[in-house]
Amino acid sequence: MTGHVDEVERAAHLLREDLGRSGTHITHEQALETAARLLGHHGRDTDTTLAIPEAPRVRGAVPILRIHDEQTAREFYVDHLGCSIEWEHRFAPGMPLYARLRRDELVIDLSGHEGDGTPGSVVWVEVGDVHRLHEELSQSPHTRTPPEIDLEAPGGPTMTIVDPFTNVIRFCRPEE
């Protein structure tokens, strides 16, 4: 079976190269499917179907932001930004907090552990309506760090807010 996979990989590579020279571009997966079919390793019964390994899927990153005070972090991230706590962890009683927070599709980890995250980190977050979010956060009683909005920011209107630990969160509505 390994010989078949190598044969299909080589054929897929050549197919993408040849098509690319003529201005036609296909994905690696499309090239593999076509090469397997052309070489007779696809579409037969399951005993002879070529098993092509699936490429690993990379998913969204989760930033880890350093915090120094749990109560202050809760006030800012939960009360002010409107995040919910998905889970919390401590290695033992009295150890620093590690927590995962979420608001819609935004996921952020907060850590009190030395070495996790760096104060002053910057996180860029895409938002559907930066003006509404700015209005919402401007009306929040959390006055420690008022949000600032830049309508002329590269890439689209951007609202910047700094957490109590000097981490910067930029909410942006990308221009289309």
Secondary structure: elements and pairs:
Elements: H1 2-21, H2 28-38, E1 64-66, H3 70-80, E2 84-89, E3 98-103, E4 106-111, E5 122-126, H4 130-138, E6 148-150, E7 158-162, E8 168-172
Parallel strand pairs: 1-4, 5-8
Antiparallel strand pairs: 2-3, 3-4, 6-7, 7-8
How many structural domains can be distinguished in the coordinates?
A: 2
Distance between the termini: 46 Å
CATH class category label of the largest domain: Alpha Beta
Large-scale geometry: elongated
What does this protein look like?
This protein has 176 residues and is an alpha/beta fold. It is built from four helices and eight strands; from the N terminus they run ααβαββββαβββ. It has two domains: 2-38, no CATH class; 64-172, 2,3-Dihydroxybiphenyl 1,2-Dioxygenase, domain 1 (Roll). Helices cover 29% and strands 22% of the residues. The strands form two sheets. A four-stranded mixed β-sheet has the order 1-4-3-2, covered by helices on one side. A four-stranded mixed β-sheet has the order 5-8-7-6, covered by helices on one side. Helix 1 packs across helix 2 (28-38).
Which structural traits does this protein have?
elongated, 4 helices, 176 residues, four-stranded mixed sheet, alpha/beta
